[in-house]
Amino acid sequence: MSIIIQLWCIAFIASVVICKPANGLSEQYRKELYYLDFYLGIRPANEQGDLEVEERSIDKYIESAAHLNCDFRLNCLWANAPSDGLLDTSEFYLLTKSDRKAFPIQVGPGNAHPPTGTHFAFAGNLTKEPQSAVLVSAPIASQSSTGILSFEYWLYNSARLEVLLLKVNPVRGHLTVIERPITDCHFLKTNGLCRVEIRKQSEPFRLAIRVFKLLDPAVGSFGMLTKVRYEAELSTFHVKWAMKIHGPPIFGGLPTARWLRQRRPISSASNLNCGREDGQNENFEECLWADFAKTPGTNTAHWAIGEHTQHWEQIMRTTPSSRPKGQFYFQYVDPVAEFPLPQLRSVLIPCTQTPSSLSFKFWLSLGLQAQICTLGSDNVALSCVYLNDADAPGPLTIDVDTADHQPFRFAFNVLRIDRGANGGAAVVALDDIRYSGWLCHESAPTAPPPRLPPLSSLLQLRLPPSAAFVDTVQAFSDSLECSFERGDQCPHWMHSVSDLESGESEEEAEELPDSQRFWLGSVPRRPPFPVDPSFRGAQVAVALLNRNAPEEQFAILTSRPIPCAEKGRLTIAYFASPGAQLSVCANEQCVSPKRKREADSMSVALNSAHSFRIRIVAERNNSMPISQNDLHEPFILIKSIAARSGFCSLSSAAELACQALNCAFGSEGLCKFKTLFLAAGDVPFVVTPSGEGIVARFSRGMRRAILKSRHFRLPSNEQLEMHLEASLSTFGSRLYICPDEQQKTVARLSMEKTGPNGVETDPLREFGYCELLMGPKVEERRIERMVVQLDPELRHFSLVAVHDKSEQFGDAEVQLNRVEIRDTGDRPIC
């Protein structure tokens, strides 16, 4: 598209007219360029009017704040944002002052006499619908102090401007706002210098200058800026990091060992081992694995050594299940990383005389695809295996043939990521690397001992799904029965927060670490360890108990809460290896089988007048001797759990949700709801003096009240409704329901709301999406009954009362009387 199509011409005849020329070098186009020059003395700075951008560096992290300083004379680290149809719908163009003509009084507040040769970034439009243009900087990995972004600016007619902090890459094609700093830069300022304070930032971001409200079909509007200056301290650790591994610091990352000193030959396969299962006394910098990039220094996604797992769930974007211990390798695939990415390579293995195996634990972000390959001495791939996130965290064992007695090495590398799903970034992590086999120069036994894979590999262990990620029919089974042998995953026996039920606190339902959980597995038909014949080829629940760990070793299966029991009987079919024993616990009492047989069926009678849980505990028994010939850890296998008579009925998902949400406010207090304070101006819900409901009272300076529900699960096969009784007292007050699916404490996206002093904080900014239930039009105070259909995916919500119009309409009260859960036939659930 030519400059004729791109540029706006401006004519000041009593007022400014902005028009967009038609295609081609028309007479009208020349006339408009004439007006542009005649009335403002500005013209295109180059043939196309394009911004001059430092293309090689616009997607690389800056190493100094001064790198963003820009007068637009030379190539800068500022560019037009990709248009997303929301924040950005137009473009900035490069204009220059061509003479000493003064700007008209309607253009301000910048200097009316900019020197000849001054360059401007210019955005304008002539439409009925408002347009906007966004100018974005090169990415900044982190900012360790408060920073200042300043620039000179000019506005005309309705044009406004603001400064934004954006995620480095668009998410699903949309610019994503991290923060909107206060931007007090408008037409009526006494000078044309816009100065915006940028708070400390710990995550990667881009600065953005947005000119918006570009409209008015009669005279149009525009904004111009120049002399951009950025002053801030970038993290000194980041600068050091950028010089070594070129990316933002996470997990306390350290560079891997230098590749040049890795070229010494290994003397045995175990030389490639890296990491300890307990994570103690590790030194990954001495391991014979290192980051390798074909063109060093040009990529931001180098492999590094992690030292902690702070913010693991936020960075990995996965459900908390397990994480590395101690040090580990990781690769942060940065939003600006370029493919092909650096690899994590082992040193060269001279050759092996027998097949060998490599085992390791791994973790992948959602949408990331990675592989491990063997490479020949010429770095050509010999064979590759994809890392499947369903197998994570492992350990995963890879068998390697002898490679015809030729040298080879291992290499981990990332193939692709779904940048739209992850906001442009993803992580792969590795730990507990073990290599076993016989090298060619080693004196191997005449009959090499059989390679015994870890028990976890032999049993094909995998973590069972927690109740939070399965259908409610499985998560809230009406029976305690469980047959692992038939392939049941039995999430109702897997302890998790999602299983939180009436009368329990969240602390009582905390997740167990992986080392204390049962796993799902399959026993080989010909296992290389002794096991009862009835268990061969069976699917089972497995508890592994480390024989060498100094602390107690145990694993637990935990039932759903049981309301009561009278002569209930629980029977467990299990197998215990030497050094392991099984117990059943309830109400702080435990029983173990009297006969110490390896394969048995344990039956326990249970009585309780109160709600209780059953815990099946596998533990290491130090009093039982373990033979030196036992090459594997103590373990317990469970085939099935049977429950016979005497147990009270278990509550359904609908009944549990009803128990969590039903409330006659006032007479029952707040029930299981709680009132929150997230910001200044928040007020509580309190019981009314009459005891008929709860009320939030608003006066000047008080603007919001939040009532948050507890966690619940809704049935997937049944539609439920929430009936709510509430009243508003004053015009302008509102009541919202906010689903809170992401449990946000601080929203990254907020609704734009312009007041007399610029952009105000939106009262719903902590919530991703809210639906208006009542208000703002209030004619008289009366109790209204509303019906809200509950989405089966909903896990908790907040009722948010807002009154930010006290100065206009006076004080207000928002009262809640009752919440009741019913089915679609208007029948109460509980």
UniProtKB/TrEMBL annotation:
The keyword Signal applies. Keywords: Signal. Residues 1-19 form the signal peptide. This is MAM domain-containing protein.
